[in-house]
Amino acid sequence: MRKLPLIALLFIIGCIPTPPWSKVGGQYFDDSQNFYVELPKGWKKSNRVIYLLLTRDGVLLQNIMITRMDIDAELKYTKKKLKRDMLPQEVAEVIIDDLTSNPNILNFNLIENTPAKISSHQGFKLLFTFRNEEGVKYKSVYYGFIAGGKFYGIRYTAAERYYFDKDIETFEKIVKSFKLLSEET
Amino acid sequence: MVNVLIKIALLLLLILSGCATTSLPPITSSTFATLEEDEKGLWRRSEEEQRIINRSDLIYKDEELENYLNEIARKLAPPEVLNYIQFKVKVIKNPYLNAFSYPNGVIYVHTGILARMDNEAQLATLLGHEITHITHRHTVRTFRDIKNKTAFLATLQVSLAVFKDDIIRELVNILGMIGTIAAISGYSKKLETEADIEGFKLMLNAGYDPYEAPKLFFHLKKELEDEQIKEPFFFGTHPRLQERIQNYNSFLAQLQYPNATKNTEVFLQKTKNVILDNAFLDLKAGRFNMAKRGAEKYLSIKPDDAKAYYLLGEIHRQRGEKDDPEKAKENYEKAISLDPSFPDSYKGLGMIYYKQGEKALAKKYFELYLSVYPEAPDKAYIEEYLKTLQER
């Protein structure tokens, strides 16, 4: 009988829904996604998605995404596939084609497509602008690389006006801190 | 029981009083007087939507092609509607098979569908279909139909509370969501069939070869089968393709038009750039077979075109299946032989040789690429390849 309040408390705790966002800052280990990064203070992380989604003022104003996918997985908008033996430029080519085949991305303008080193991995860096269906202009920086059978993407997108410049340095610091927890095979 | 019947009669009266008619005369009809108020609203909304489309980069810009398409539309349009509607055809950069129209006379045709057609008669089939959607006021009729069905269900659900009897409740339960959607889809199918029939008459009156009408759908059907697509876009709400081909064949059985117009050469000359540009879009979308078919079709119109051979090279390189690298090399080399100043084929060859470990050849082609195109946007990659080749 004395155990009843304890059981009730556990039951209540178990029923409390996870908040959609939680504050972050400092070291961040994601074992399921196999990476580590240093996160800035004052930012929030979404608890609703499997990948890492961060924002400070709201996802429509600025967001940072770190994604990891099997290279065999289908991309959302192009039927092209990533392959293990692709050069970083070829990987970038597929990612650009996926972005430009997205009907919600209008007026895509690629400003930069260059090789980049992320942690110790050879990859690419894209810088581009686009408009969404409502006509809002966004600017994005997208780093990506293939390690073993996985593709990693680290992307920052923000409204071009005011917001992009505001957080680009924060994003680059995150990219510099990025490390794989174990090498993919 | 009498009580229930009175309640049903009252309910029906309530429903009918809230319904707008979907039976509107076509603009081509002598009974047509003016646009309805809600229709005017739809026209205004159409203009707003078109403004968004037109200011995006979705529009394929080719003035000569647009003029040609508008000329065909004018040829097809019934003269009696030209006082009310100015038809305007625009092309959208999209490799998927689609075309759609707004009630105010603006028709959008995807590059994908244009690139697959063989001649002007097939184009006339498509435009005749879209023109009928406009002249027969299909947008406002569909809009009212959906509105009425929504009003019907809402009224019915509210009024159901009046009935303690389960008869009507059960009817609604049987119909349910799927029944409602099926009813709406069915109505749309009816309008699509009307557009097929009336559009067919328009192309026939304009002197086009009616035997080309089913061929358009036959080509499309083949392509859908190749891509294992069931019913995309243009066909999503339309009667199924096979059914449409049969409909056209049954019209044709009653006709004899041996010398009607196809205008194949004019059509292919006017649309050849769309064919090539659309093949590049297919490549972006990873539809390698369609991209290849597009490039080959373009080469059949304009042989010895370096850009088309370069595209074939790209298709093979990017697909990367068993014999693809060798086929890619052949096409890149052919492109270079036709136009040595076109840089991208050098890069393609460089990348293949680089991956195959053929250092000297990779170096040669990367250097050639940079010498032809010193300001290449991907210069940094090429310099890195050259650096790596030096270190190895």
Structural class of chain B: mainly alpha
* Sequence of secondary-structure elements of chain A: HEEEEEEHEEEEHE
H/E element string of chain B? HHHEEEHHHHHHHHHHHHHH
**How many distinct folded domains of chain B?**
2
Count, helices of chain B: 17
Rounded mean pLDDT score of chain B? 83
Greatest interface by residues involved:
A-B, 26 and 21 residues
Spatial sequence of strands, sheet with the most strands of chain A: 1-4-5-6-10-9-8-7
Structural notes for this entry:
The complex is a heterodimer of chains A (about 180) and B (about 400). Chain A is of the alpha+beta class and about 180 residues long. Chain A has a single domain (about 25-180), classed as Mog1/PsbP, alpha/beta/alpha sandwich (Protein Transport Mog1p, Chain A). Helix content of chain A is about 20%, strand content about 40%. Chain A has an 8-stranded antiparallel beta sheet with strand order 1-4-5-6-10-9-8-7, with helices on both faces. In chain A, strands 2-3-11 form a 3-stranded antiparallel beta sheet. With about 400 residues, chain B is mainly alpha-helical. Chain B has 17 helices and 3 strands. In chain B, strands 1-3-2 form a 3-stranded mixed beta sheet. In chain B, helix 1 (about 1-15) packs antiparallel against helix 6 (about 140-160) and helix 12 packs antiparallel against helix 13. The longest helix of chain B is centred in the middle third of the chain and has 39 residues, at about 165-205. Chain B starts with a helix and ends with a helix. The chains are: A alpha+beta (about 180), B mainly alpha (about 400). The interface between A and B is medium-sized, with 26 and 21 residues.
